[in-house]
What does this fold into?
Amino acid sequence: MSDDRRYETEDEKDLYEDLDEEEMYEILQEEKERIRQKRRVEKKQEPKRRFPRWIFWLIALFLFINAAIAIPSMFSLPAIDFVKTSAQLMLDEDVQKYRESIVTVDTGSGRGTGFSFTNDGYILTNYHVIEEREQLWVYFKEDGPYGATIEEVYPEIDLAVLKTEASNFPHLDLALQTEYESNEPFYFIGSPLGFSGIANEGEIIGEMTVSGIDSPVLMLDAPIYSGNSGSPVINESGEVIAIIYATLNHDTYGRIGLAVPIDAYYDFQQKE
It folds into this structure.
């Protein structure tokens, strides 16, 4: 019977017989390291896999859908529409000029709108804007803040006159009286929803009496929001015929704006 076992040659015997355990261990460690190095080189030489383009577009679509869902929860569609309208109106040269006279009134506890109506720093706003003030600062377009003092208050018609220390401000002219026609268009500019100098437009519906105001007020079909209190109602001649102070859900017209006519300001001013 033949023996198929492979015997070591004399040379091989000598090779292993001359190695002790420590030397054998070192040889094994060197061999392992050589194999590791070889694998590293082979890995570097492998072509990199390109990131699948379809995964990129899938992620982009996912982000877009989430943004589309989030935006309506942050801003209502009417609010988005009023910002677009404002952007268009601010290209108008007259509106740009009107904006220079508009101020943001900062009371520390809230913000409202006002406007200068003389060149020596007198400003009209609503009484409720400054009633619970912690401070009183006004900001013109890209200018301010300016400290302000309260010169006159008319709580009966929710108006107040402020005075700043500076002068030579641009200003809006007050109409001599509140004249208008039904559905007459107008501009108004203010600081709604945390913005500043936002211009928009609307139409005058008519007049009504409301509790808390000792004068008939104008009803406005216009996108009026929190922060618009004190905004001037500007007619097509560029004159202020009223001051916005509130909104109301009307049985016939739905959500409308309310504005104190400039006539009421003159009447109470004469009583002083």
